[in-house]
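Need tokens for this chain, all 196 residues.
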Amino acid sequence: MMYSTPPGSVVEQWGRIAQWLADNLSSVSIAGATDEQIQDAMRATGGLWPEELTSFFGLVNGFPPDKWLALFPMHELFDLERVVHEHKLELDVWGEIDAEMGAEAQTGTSAGDCVGTYLPHFIPFAGADGYLLFVDARNGPLHGCVTEFEKVDADDAGPKWLSLSAMLTDLADSLHTGTAFDGRHPTLIDGALRWE
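Here are the structure tokens for all 196 residues:
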């Protein structure tokens, strides 16, 4: 089911999130990637990134291991190195699966179209245990939508948000008001962000 939140501004919504984190978590450490790091990651993943994704990583490039933060309920936010690693890993794994199954190459599909495999245009930015959140860099009206990729059902559930900025809007609203984000409510327990 696609969320109805409209696209907005990554910078504005991340600002709201970063302010909440600064106000509520004393140990938070936020640093963006350099333009060179972003360009290197783009080249390593095919160079097909929507502007919202480059803006996002310019604001936050994951969290240091010693300052890990559960920013999302079910997914760990990646840094650019992990983006490149997960992208290659998924392409390798699903390439083998597709070859074994005799699947045809998925060409001519648009952003948001379910393909049942992993495409080079899927840029993962968060994940855990084989479940990823990716930005769909294919062309089409839903260019830049956010979809969850599952290790069994692939992208069959379809897009969850119209854009990265829409997802960040929902996350910021959840943090500031306590409403649910992706089915979970934020809580502060012993100075740490938890999702229940």
